[in-house]
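Incident log, structure service

09:12 report received: a user says their structure output differs between two submissions of the same chain.
09:20 pulled the input from the user's history:
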Amino acid sequence: MFAITGVTGQVGGVVARALLAAGQRVRAVLRDPARGAAWAAQGCEIALADMRDAAALTRAFAGAQAVFVLLPPVFDPAPGYPESRAAIGALNEALLAARPTRVVCLSTIGAHAAEDNLLQQLGIMERELRTLPMPVAFVRAAWFMENAAWDVGSALADGEIASFLQPLDRPVPMVATADVGRVAADLLRDTGTGVRIVELEGPRRTTPNEIAETFSRVLGSTVRARAVPRDTWDALFRAQGMRYPQPRIRMLDGFNEGWIDFAAPADTVKGTVPLETVLRGLVERASARG
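09:34 re-ran on a clean worker, output below:
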């Protein structure tokens, strides 16, 4: 039995479907019972648990051979990251109580970075969960190609995508969530020991200009990338409703200045899904929604 958190998201869903396709028993751990029916129809057991409820998580993980951990994303965290620290504490308590054979955690590129930024939440998770008594694997994934979903509307309407990644010709490590889920599913069935860090990126690094060029091929019309001036970010993010935009700004600075990167860039695992495949899927889904 494999317990999968975050199953209603892109990565967790890929992990669950990969295991089901391999004939494995899967327990989908989710918060909203209304979203469980679709997974039950695919053959999953359903366990309800909030990610900050240690007792509910312990019940969800009980009897599991392995657990996939996906920390709920907090994009506008309060100072000190109390929201993520609460979830990490609950996860740690539940895993210690349930004692699965192994744990696989979705982490991020730059989790080891010393400077404070939005990704520090996953660095905190790594430091806390690496002390667990069972084998733990952290998948440090690159920037998700699927983040381009936010650009589909402007690419279609205006022939332009706004980029916070700068300069526009600087290659950035990116990866498709399909590759992340596939690697995580493999690690859940792996028999390795101790703490393992797997740094994962796509087939090739990609510039914002190349994202625009790929949109151009997919849409059959010209799309250009436009750099969003850094001195406008704070006001822009606050206008979008953020109260604490600095961690997000520093994360973007980290990518642009190069201090958010892999610890061992030469040894990264390479995915196989190209950017064009991801963008075609995003455009098709946007078109289907009308």
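09:41 both user submissions now match this output. Likely a transient worker issue. Closing.
09:42 reviewer note: DSSP finds eleven helices and twelve strands in the chain. Residues 165 and 287 are 26 Å apart (CA to CA).
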